[in-house]
Amino acid sequence: MASAELGSSGALLRVLALLLLPGAAPAFKPASIGWSPSSTVRGTLTASDYKTLYYTQKTDHFGFDEDSSFKQRYLLADKYWNKDGGPILFYPGNEGDIELFCNNTGFMWDVAEDFQAMLVFAEHRYYGQSLPFGADSYADSKHLNYLTSEQALADFVVLIRFLKESIPGAGNSSVIAIGGSYGGMLAAWLRMKYPDVVVGAFAASAPIWQFEDLVPCDSFYDIVTNDFTKSGNGCSQSILNSWNAINRVAVTDEGIQWLSSTFHLCCPLQGKDDIGYFKSWLTETWVNLAMVNYPYEADFLQPLPAWPVQVVCKFLSNPSLDDKTLLQNIFQAINVYYNYSGNTQCLNISQAATASLGDKGWSYQACTEMVMPFCADGVNDMFEPQPWDFKSYAEDCFKQWGVTPRLTWITSEYGGKNICSHSNIVFSNGGLDPWSSGGVTKDITDTLVAVFIPEGAHHLDLRFRHPDDPESVVRARELEIKYMKQWLRKTRSSL
């Protein structure tokens, strides 16, 4: 296992892989928590709810030398679609299997009948089943050369054109792009780059400004810390104190063995070189918990209870404990995240989220054009000091992928904060979501609108309606629907 000190760019690449990523021991459960399997108020979608289809895409839309093609998977549901001009709600796929995002974008399913809309979920190239070179797609940087947001947007545009030309009645259908996280970034960029193809975009939790120096690099970890500070006395301080506790315990081989045993690791730590990797995994866990701090049981990244950060913080109320007792409590806390079902045998520190997310592909994207600066100071946040060092970051990228990241490309390609010439985009962000640090949280113009949800975690408003939804997310969805209907009315009146 390679070393990854928390302050290194290697740790940053692991955090970036979230957007904006479990043997031998008997099953275990944390104390003082009533355990029950994850349940969903509204049943999970099944294959019968949509058609699984494939479209042949060019591998390279912008050059003429590479003439190969691949099958892009997309999911289509037309139960409520009005063939006489009903709109198409189009989801530009994220960094993962498209079925994961289809099942976690209940907003589109909830509004389909009202809008009399066709739903389309298009898989992003290099993820899920949409592999341009099959099993060789990740073989080397040459095969990965076509994994870019620009190529993905072109896929979506070509697919939309195909749908409108091949499906009877779809020729006059207006298209609205809807996405969350990276999918939200793509939805916004799809509207910006191809306004003739989509009449508007709803971009939820889309950190389109998490680039260069558009926002402070420490904002992301500040929000994570604030979530834990508000969720329990002593909680964020306990996490802050845990880093030095780990360092002190890991001074000896016996201490490293104790950490492996206490945290029920599937693969024991092999020495001091693994401690940085271990701390990076813990960092990811705290970030993930903040992202999916939903007000009801959910299983987007892992099966979790309602308000999981509050549940976690019950184990972290005393930051002044001795090192080993504090770390035992840290284990109980993260076990809520990894073992809410009660069935996990051991913890795998190579994976912090569902395997349906394409961590490997996103790591490559973060090493090319998706360069998002993050930093922590260990004073105003609960993490070890982690400076932003692009030089070190680029060196790690080259070692891993043989490529050099382009720090300024995304802002050059999509405009950074200079986007006021665009129109018809709703940006929504949640106050609990660390990715809101790079999101649009204030109106730019009367057609580039921000919707802020104080009690919202990562794209909560894109999930299915739920009885336990905070009032702020109910109002947010009403606003989002209002703007979408305005775009459709304006488009129809101009025909």
User: What kind of oligomer do you see?
Assistant: single chain
Q: Roughly how many Å apart are the termini?
A: 60 Å
What helical percentage do the residues reach? 25-40%
Q: What is the residue-mean pLDDT, rounded to a whole number? A: 90
Strand content: 5-15%
Q: Count every beta strand, where a strand is a DSSP E run of 2 or more residues.
A: 8
Protein name: Lysosomal Pro-X carboxypeptidase
GO molecular function: dipeptidyl-peptidase activity; serine-type carboxypeptidase activity
Subcellular location: Lysosome
EC number: 3.4.16.2
Please tell me about this protein's structure.
The protein is α/β, with parallel strands linked by helices and 495 residues long. 37% of the residues lie in helices and 10% in strands. It has helices at residues 9-16, 98-103, 106-115, 149-166, 182-193, 219-231, 235-249, 253-262, 275-291, 308-313, 323-338, 359-366, 390-401, 409-414, 471-494; strands at 51-58, 69-77, 88-92, 118-122, 175-180, 200-204, 425-430, 448-453. It has an eight-stranded mixed beta sheet with strand order 1-2-4-3-5-6-7-8, sandwiched between helices. The radius of gyration is 22 Å and the shape is globular.
Can you give keywords for this protein?
eight-stranded mixed β-sheet; alpha/beta; 15 helices
Secondary structure elements and pairings:
Layout: H1 9-16, E1 51-58, E2 69-77, E3 88-92, H2 98-103, H3 106-115, E4 118-122, H4 149-166, E5 175-180, H5 182-193, E6 200-204, H6 219-231, H7 235-249, H8 253-262, H9 275-291, H10 308-313, H11 323-338, H12 359-366, H13 390-401, H14 409-414, E7 425-430, E8 448-453, H15 471-494
Parallel strand pairs: 3-4, 3-5, 5-6, 6-7, 7-8
Antiparallel strand pairs: 1-2, 2-4
Helix pairs in contact: 1-9, 1-13, 6-9, 7-11
